[in-house]
Amino acid sequence: MRGTVALVGRPNVGKSTLFNRLTGGREALVADFPGLTRDRQYGRASFDGEGVRLIDTGGLSEDREEIFGPMADQVEIAIDEADLVLFIVDARSGRSTYDDEISDYLRRRGVEILLVVNKTDGVSEFATYEFDELGFGRPLPISASHGRGVGALKEAVLERLPPAVDDADDDYRLRVALVGRPNVGKSTLVNRIIGEDRQVVFDEPGTTRDAIDVPFRDYLLIDTAGVRRRGKVRETVEKFSVVKTLEALDRAEVAILLLDAREGVVDQDLHLVRYAIDAGAGLAIGVNKWDGLSRDDRERAKTSFDRKLRFVPWVPVRFLSALHGTGVGELLPLADQIFAAGELDTTTPELNRILEEAVADHPPPLVNGRTIKLRYVHKVGAHPPTLVVHGSQTHALPASYLKFLENRFRERLKLVGVPIKIVARTTKNPFSDRKNNLSERQYRRRQRLIRHRKGR
């Protein structure tokens, strides 16, 4: 992981559109009116194969009353968390007094700045020159909505980020991160696992302020600070809690997301699930404080968990009590099982047998009257398991069919708790390099004539 990048600017300059473009998703809301993004939105992007954490922020404005006051506080936190700030301005609306004020504010923060001019599609290149006077050098022109200039932006970001740091904890066989909201019992769980009061436990949210490494046997347990609900992070001492949690997910092979049985699953928990999947970490969910629920409350809680976590049916859920030790002994063996699944210790012939069975049971759809043919599959990576499927017209495979293949491989190989990445590649057409620009029919006819003459 190379570092953290914050997207900052006045409202409605396209920060969330750029965030979605870089992360390849639609996690941040986008609409054509100012002030839609109110809290920090975290995501993970790949820049030329290197991981980068992104923070989308609300628009900075001179109006600090009502919503813009808390929004400005959120932006300040994001700037403190970032290694680099992308200062986004709008080529269509031009330079404003707000841009000048934001540039002065950023200079006072002493953070590395990269000036980016968005919405340059259909605008003269001379329109970007007025932003030179902001004092951050020649800005990068892009169109976040159409992707123009985004490749150059990624290169510029990597040039300014610090080099990736080698993990200092490689001596441990397995790194397990314990993540979740404040006061769900992460530190209590660590103490229960290792059998001593190593972590400070206090009945107040946010006692753990940083990610703490706790060696235990051949494991490295990473106890993280709680990720608070939307808009609740204000204390200076807590500013780095979220980024430290995300760093722990990037470092760990397996993450245990701890939930409070009384509160159930909230949006913040789902964000952590998605980030763990993007980071390629194995994942298990521990529902803590289970012993405090009545039988009826347990049934209602299980129904709620099943409904809200149905998009990740492959993630195992364990019900436990960190305080009393119930179910805690299952967690590290489960982490071992998930880690083994992430290795994907199988053979290429076995993978191809599974692919053949899947295609026979459910053939790929037709594209323009032609069949998509899937010829073979092989493994290219682990943690997460990554498979490459080769065939013809694989670019036309619908996402639903790739999901079908993922589920089939997961079922046959008994892969528990790990995301699977399936990459489809189209085999090169042997006729694409034919000479004299012959059509395929002409080429085949010529080959038959050659074979006929040789037979004579």
Total helical segments: 12
Corresponding CATH superfamily of the largest domain: P-loop containing nucleotide triphosphate hydrolases
CATH third-level topology of the largest domain = Rossmann fold
Strand content bin: 15-25%
Distance between the termini: 65 Å
CATH C-level class of the largest domain is: Alpha Beta
- Report mean pLDDT, rounded to a whole number: 84
Helix content: 25-40%
Low-pLDDT stretches: 64-68, 202-209, 230-239
Structural class designation:
alpha/beta
- CATH architecture of the largest domain, please? 3-Layer(aba) Sandwich
- Coarse morphology: flat
Instruction: Give the strand tally.
Output: 17
3D structure, described in words:
- The chain folds into three domains: 4-160, Rossmann fold, CATH 3.40.50.300; 174-342, P-loop containing nucleotide triphosphate hydrolases (Rossmann fold); 344-456, GMP Synthetase, Chain A, domain 3, CATH 3.30.300.
- The chain is built from twelve helices and 17 strands.
- The protein has helices spanning 15-23, 68-81, 97-109, 150-160, 186-194, 241-251, 267-279, 295-308, 331-343, 348-361, 399-413, 440-455; strands at residues 4-8, 41-47, 50-56, 84-90, 113-118, 140-141, 174-179, 212-216, 219-223, 254-260, 282-288, 317-319, 366-367, 370-371, 373-381, 386-392, 421-426.
- The strands form four sheets. It has a six-stranded mixed beta sheet with strand order 2-3-1-4-5-6, sandwiched between helices. The chain has a six-stranded mixed beta sheet with strand order 8-9-7-10-11-12, with helices on both faces.
- α8 links the parallel β11 (282-288) and β12 (317-319).
- α10 packs across α11.
- The protein is flat and about 85 Å long.
